[in-house]
Amino acid sequence: MAEHGNAVDELMAMSTEEILQAQLELYHHCVALVKSMALKAATDLRVPDVIYRRGGAATLSDLAADTGIHPTKVAHLRRIMRVLTTSGGVFSIQNSDDGGTPVYKLTRVSRLLVESSRHELSAMVGVLVDPFAVTAFFSIPKWFTDERAASVSLFEVAHGCTRVEMVAKDASYGGMFHAGMTSDSRFILDILLRESSGVFQGVGSLVDIGGGHGAVASAIATAFPQIRCTVLELPDVVAGAPADIGNVEFEVGDMFEYIPPADALLFKWIFHVWQDEDCVKILRQCKKALPPRDAGGKVIIIDTVVGCGSQQVTVSSEMQLWLDVYMMYVDGEERDELEWKKIFLEAGFSDYKITPVLGFRSLIEVYP
Predict the structure, then answer these.
(1) Could you say which of 29, 76, 178, 272 is catalytic?
(2) Which residues belong to any copy of the O-methyltransferase C-terminal domain (predicted)?
(3) Are residues 235 and 86 in the same domain?
């Protein structure tokens, strides 16, 4: 009761300005998802493409005409664009000197959403701002307190199946998910090959574990024709892979049971889906498949290392923390360096190297 009284006393001692500021911050946290929803709507309507096709500048009327907005909703589109120009700078707005109609322009963020862009990531907006994921978070109190719910993932509590099962049984959801993962893979491999291509030097064979439809393996095989690249995936994923993927082989398998031998084993955004004990099981299979370190054997991981990079609170560090909570919806997690080291050593690996060259993610090399 004393603590309760102290809290009330502290609130009563606050000035009106402080109380109103506290209310503002509380409500701001509550409605922060509006920016995500606005971004998803603008992406689905292909607003960045309209601006690009209009020569890089488009009026509200241009956007309405080219996206097929119903005449009664043009004013509402303006409200969405106002959020996306003033909060986060997804778009910019420029008023003409003569007081004419203002125009919207692309920023470095929205350029990533243009269809013809080499680094297009519009499909990833659909993956991250996913109604199935968002609704799962409403089950957190039950997941935390109910014994039966605690034994499965948040996704299962909300939807009655795992995300993997949903991807397999729902064609539209699965298509959206694989398209997003493919776009992210192309993006990150382009950066990796530009900044740290040395990671593939001396590698004669590589297996991309959980490599989806082969975007990563294809990029590596194109850049390094001498590397024999294989993708290890589940049967339904391999069945949906494109026929023309270049010099890449697909192998059906379960990484918990067997991983094909290779000089290097690649995991892009795989471990953050699994708990520590599962990661250890996967890495032990890796150890069986790899040659010794002095023969070039290693695991290459593209994933988040929480706290790696700037020690200040930045967009990158905040993204790492948000993503850690976000991954709870599939019972996954992001890890700091000590947590990564723990699973590496427990799986029988002797050394590792972290290179923070991929934005909020890092390149991790693990050696047997």
Answers:
(1) 272
(2) 142-350
(3) no
